[in-house]
User: Fold these one by one.
Assistant:
Number 1:
Amino acid sequence: MLFKNNEYVDNQCTFNCDKCGLCCQHLRDFGDLYHDLDDGTGCCRYYDSRTRLCRIYEIRPLKCRVEEGYSTYFNSISFSEYLAKTRLGCMFLKEKYGSHEQNKV
Ligand code: SF4
Ligand code: SF4
């Protein structure tokens, strides 16, 4: 598995984060896993709507990190399956909320 410029690649799947910020703005779409980060609106308290980036990126929780999140929370499935599900989750958010929200400031 390789990681370069926000792209994860293994022998079966590629996942590329385009930094749209939709996952950080819609924590409730992931059930209760991120409830401790919820600012009361469903958005993460550490999300910067101006830059669309994480304000605590270097020390963000394990559940916000692809590899560590997999090892800690999701390792009952293969890493390829996990990447595929992650990619589907991103597509779901983009379809549900659309590009207008990606540009919300
Ligand atoms: S929704 Fe997906 S593509 Fe957008 S920031 Fe989150 S992980 Fe990256
Ligand atoms: S801590 Fe950072 S990466 Fe995690 S949900 Fe909040 S803004 Fe997103």
Note: The mean pLDDT is 85.
Number 2:
Amino acid sequence: MHYPHTHQQNTKYEIKKELEKADKNKDGCYTRDELKSAFKSLGSRIPSWRTQFALWNVDSNGDGQVSGHEIDALIDYIFDRLNNGHGKLN
Ligand SMILES: [Ca+2]
Ligand SMILES: [Ca+2]
């Protein structure tokens, strides 16, 4: 049986796992290139465009990378995009 809340957590967990795989140097923050490969593996057909939009949305200190609490915002951002796209990321 699936409860909406549980499902949401699983999906966010899966997004987090995908992101962790894309963090090539394992420093816990995401450069533009790392984000691009994350979006590619999450099924984005235009990852460079998606990366730019994600950075505009979640890079609150403007250093061009996603780190710390920005990662939580990034996961929420991806989760919302996936929901709006009915499970697909464009
Ligand atoms: Ca990194
Ligand atoms: Ca940042």
Note: The chain has four helices and no strands.
